[in-house]
Amino acid sequence: MAAEGGGKEMNEIKTQFTTREGVYKLLTHSEYSRPNRVPFNSQGSNPVKVSFVNVNDQSGNGDRICFNVGRELYFYIYKGVRKAADLSKPIDKRIYKGTQPTCHDFNPITATAESVSLLVGFSAGQVQLIDPIKKETSKLFNEERLIDKSRVTCVRWVPGSESLFLVAHSSGSMYLYNVENTCGTTAPHYQLLKQGENYAVHTCKSKSARNPLLRWTVGEGALNEFAFSPDGKFLACASQDGFLRVFGFDAAELHGTMKSYFGGLLCVCWSPDGRYIVAGGEDDLVTVWSFSDCRVIARGHGHKSWVSVVAFDHCTTSVEDGDLPAEFSGSDEEFHEQIHFGVGRDRANSAHSRLSKRNSTDSRPVSVTYRFGSVGQDTQLCLWDLTEDILFPHLPLSRTRTHTNVMSATSPPATGQTTTTTTTTTTTTTTATATATVPATNPSGTNGKDNTSNSSTSGNPPNSLPSTLPRSNSLPHSSNPTGGSTPNSHTGSSSSSTTAAAASSTTTTTTTSTKANSIIDSAFIATGVSKFATLSLHDSRKERHEKDHKRNHSMGHISSKSSDKLNQLSSTRTAKAEAAKTLGTLLCPRMEDVPLLEPLVCKKIAHERLTVLIFLEDCLVTACQEGFVCTWARPGKVGLLSSQNNPANSPSGTVV
Description:
Elements: H1 8-11, E1 16-19, E2 22-32, E3 50-54, E4 63-69, E5 72-77, E6 92-95, E7 101-106, E8 118-122, E9 127-131, E10 136-141, E11 152-157, E12 164-169, E13 173-178, E14 189-196, E15 199-205, E16 214-218, E17 223-228, E18 234-239, E19 243-248, E20 253-259, E21 265-270, E22 276-281, E23 285-290, E24 295-301, E25 307-312, E26 318-321, H2 333-336, H3 346-357, E27 366-376, E28 380-387, H4 388-391, H5 495-504, H6 519-524, H7 539-553, H8 560-582, E29 596-597, E30 601-604, E31 610-615, E32 619-624, E33 629-633
Parallel strand pairs: 24-29
Antiparallel strand pairs: 1-2, 2-33, 3-4, 4-5, 5-6, 7-8, 8-9, 9-10, 11-12, 12-13, 13-16, 14-15, 15-16, 17-18, 18-19, 19-20, 21-22, 22-23, 23-24, 25-27, 26-27, 27-28, 28-30, 31-32, 32-33
């Protein structure tokens, strides 16, 4: 935990930490930054982000790193734990005027030693496709800002595609682009393609192929981050309205939602086998959400401020053989219902194959540990283990787990819950209630009656929760019986509002997307748009839209900045109302209703807020808003001289 002493020790920057695998060490000479190594004055600038790609270089040094600092973008050979960084020789460096890079992503499919495709999103809404090896700028998308004028928050290549990419904006919209298409000289006109609870998908009406192919409008407020599942079939979206929404990407079907305990969600990631989603945000928590059960299975409390990045460690996630629990002797249908994904990489692939091959005649079931990490604005790095005592709470442990401090999860299941439905991958996400679709700029609140929650596949009645779990005495606020104890929990829900929300919520069945009704295929057919013209909005949604339109229309003379502030104020009021309605439901269970994880490691590792956490095979990479990208060697992977870890040599002034 963070409380490892008091006074001066609490403010010291750590350069190593220990887990059960061994000691992770900061390699100060493998630090990447601007060539002058001067800390960047980060006031008002966009977060520092880092992207990696491997160009399959024959020399064995194929890793490349890209990072943005303020108006600057750098592209280097990444030497990792092998050699010290040479900052005097960037492969490419770009300085932008009038706008700042906010995010970027390499296409791993097309990357070679001679050419890489790098997408860069900007604060003014544009997206640039560049080749930093050839030093070429091939295309600029949304150049005239006719598609979206708001900041780009996340950009990703569509998995398995050489030409399709997805862009999210702070307006709450996502756009699907094709690098081969132009963006046109006029603002796009859209045709409704599909609509669901608080999301809509439109296709671009045009006689000729143009960008964007599709526009997604998701939730209210900014769409802060999205992540594709390992197999590329599903899309998890973390929004400022506090909801995690998981979609079948091809069919644009809503699979499930989760709501943060408080505030917006800022980050999201998938476990290597796609069974769990982890999300973090303004409630200072990391939340683990089961993809198959569509419910929160654990929360982690270790950060003292907003959680900015969550990531799974595919190298430490493990599956081991164990002794057969007496209760785990039922049919395998329940077990295999949880297995949706056959795509995994590295060690996670072998782990997943052992999970999927297991059957009821095996003498030893699997023992699962998922490792994930988080960094936050509190400048702390936390590492977490998700073990079988959380994943299989109603089965005896196959071995004693002394390295994970969790709440006792021995309470009996709720009525009607079978003990054989288990999920073996952890991803913390906050699921959001789906609400009626509104324009991205709509500041109005959503109707609480639109809230729906997914009942778990285990047969629970909607909104039912297991009986209260005892809290660990080592956790802060453990004596609080109400569970509203997180640092930012300003939600004061009344039992009447919670009951009303529970009564009004309905269960939705989860659907798996199929290629047959792929909306991406539909978007390519310009003449096929007319067949979707019969899709009409519900009357209630029309009425709400008209009211919102009148309200926005009366603000027409106000400047865009002023209207943004009004929108933020309105969305804040909406968020508070929504939180009171969802707290205590499956969308957002109370603190005492789910296991509460403690971090294995919680260390202050920077002077400024942390913005990057990436797990690589032989190290993990962090970055802070000062513009320093740090490499932490895994146990036994230190390739540099030990003298180079002397804190006196550290350019950023780190202290052991």
